[in-house]
Amino acid sequence: MLTKPKTIIPAILLFFLLSAVSTLDDDFKFKQLQYENVKTAYIDKENDMKKLVLKKGIKSFANHMLLRVFKAEEIIELYIKPPNATSYTLLKKYKICEKSGEFGPKTKLGDKQIPEGFYNIELFDHENEHFLGLGINYPNQADKNRGSQNDEVFLWGGCKANGSIPVSDEGIKEIYVMAVEAKAAGQQKIPIQIFPAGLTSKNLDKLQNLYPGDSYLSQFWASLKVNFDYFNANKKELNYSATPNGVYTFHTGDETINVPQESPEVIAKNNKPSTTLPKNIETKNEVSPQGSVASIPQKEVEQKTQLTRTKSVSGEELHTVEKGETLFAISRKHGITLNELKSWNRLWSNNIKVGQQLKVSKPKFYEVHKGDTMYSIAKKNGISLDELQKLNGKDNYLLAVGEIVRIVP
User: Fold this and answer.
1) What residues have CB less than 8 Å from 237, skipping those under 6 apart?
2) pLDDT confidence bin for 362, thresholds 50/70/90
3) In 3-state terms, what secondary structure has residue 49?
4) What is the pLDDT of residues 93-146, one digit of tens each?
5) 291 near 311, Cβ under 8 Å?
6) Phi, psi torsion values for 303, nearest 5 degrees
7) Burial 357-391 (b: 16+ CB within 10 A, else e)
8) What average pLDDT score do residues 152-170 get?
9) Which residue would you say has higher pLDDT here, 260 or 41?
């Protein structure tokens, strides 16, 4: 007896539909493997990465991925999870092999600043001049709300930063292979989270001490910490959106997770310069699998050296580091606190190099950022509003983002 066609045709259509979906996923990987650099990456790294995935207890090589970047520790963390899983597993960590820019979000074209915030991989560049590159969707909505200018930002090989995130060629081979597998496994958006540092409470205080009085950066970093803490605890992503001034808010289901607001007393405490002499130690920062920072004490050696002072273009006094000098010793020689020395030079750790030039007097000028006012700038720099106006020949309170104002006579 003949079977009715209406029961066979849907099954056949379903088979071809499923095959088409599989073909679409496989098609991306197939096209990527036509490129020489990608082919080289797979030949060199596919088997090694498969073994590593198996060691993590994950049976399939077709996984989704997530990247976390820590600027201070110069570390990239690569996480993976099966497409139907909810939480990620740390697969491997990579060393960022060249620094670029300072702490804080990227705002200007060509400023060589690595951005901070939550992004996605949007471009697979198989012919990048740095061997292979993964393009990041900068500027995102938070950056746009902050008024940031368009620029290209990549995670790439070759160990050259220029405002992008550089790893070795061997490192980018592995990361690129895993990104191709994630895309082929149906992951439309591959997240990359970029932090100034592992945002423990201690490190958040440390960052705020580097930028005393900058309430915007404090709020911005506090928003990043919400996601940092949530991922550390759950190994899951949070949905996020951007406020009009470029700060992040987070959502889990119907719940909104707000950034903690510090009281004026706490802010004042965090921004108060230290009046006590620190211990004579240097620290070497390392990121744990959870992204926290471990401090390894190293003995500080003091040697008597002659003061070396010059002037910077903007008028600050500079000290050239000589062999055997430490930050603590330099601060004492110039009659300033260690916190002032680190803040004026945007230094994260106590590590310095012979020949490095350090500002040893208060900066004479300030660059206006979004949200700054004449009053807030005067307050940050310990001068009156009238004095700030006189120093800059102003009879009004108008400022432009990027404007340079004098803060010291």
Assistant:
1) 66, 191, 231
2) confident
3) helix
4) 999 998 888 899 998 888 889 999 999 999 999 987 889 999 999 999 999 999
5) no
6) -130, 145
7) ebbbbebeebebbeebebebbbebbebeeeebbeb
8) 91
9) 41
Reported confidence tier of residue 327, pLDDT bands at 50, 70, 90: confident
Q: Encoding tokens for residue 133? A: 């590159």
> Which residues fall within 8 angstroms of residue 342, CB to CB, at 6 or more apart?
209, 210, 327, 350
By the 8 A CB rule, do 105 and 146 touch?
Answer: yes
Dihedral sign for Cα atoms in the order 289, 290, 291, 297: negative
**Confidence category of residue 314, pLDDT binned at 50, 70, 90:** low
Place of tokens 């005067």: 378
Q: CA torsion angle for 268, 269, 272, 276 (degrees, to 10)?
A: 170
3-class state of residue 125 by DSSP: strand
Provide the greatest CA pair distance for the chain.
105
Task: Please tell me whether residue 27 adopts helix, strand or coil conformation.
Answer: helix
Place of tokens 């960022």: 96
Question: What's the confidence (pLDDT) of residue 141?
Answer: 95
Q: Which residues of 317-328 are buried (b: 16+ CB within 10 A; e: fewer)?
A: ebbebeeebbbb
Torsion sign over Cα 329, 335, 339, 345: negative
Cα radius of gyration rounded to whole Å, the chain: 25
Question: What's at 24, amino acid-wise?
Answer: L
**Residue 322, both tokens:** 């000589």
- Sheet with 117-125, edge to edge strand ranges: 89-95, 75-81, 64-70, 190-195, 117-125, 133-136, 154-156, 165-166
Q: Which of 234, 286, 221, 232 is nearest to 260 (CA)?
A: 221
Q: Average pLDDT in the 285-295 region? A: 39
Q: What b/e readout covers 142-177, taking b as 16+ CB neighbours within 10 angstroms?
A: bbebbebeebebbbbbbbebbbbbbbbbebbbbbbb
Per-residue model confidence as pLDDT tens digits over 219-228? 999 999 999 9
Per-residue pLDDT of 180-197, as tens digits, reads 999 999 999 999 999 999
Beta bridge partners of 278: none
Reduced to 3 states (helix: H, G, I; strand: E, B; else coil), residue 71 is coil
Q: Structural domains in the chain? A: 18-299 (2.40.440.10), 365-406 (3.10.350.10)
CB 250 within 8 Å of CB 243? no
With a cut of 50, say whether residue 209 has pLDDT above it.
Answer: yes
Helix axes 215-234, 264-271, angle to 10 degrees: 100
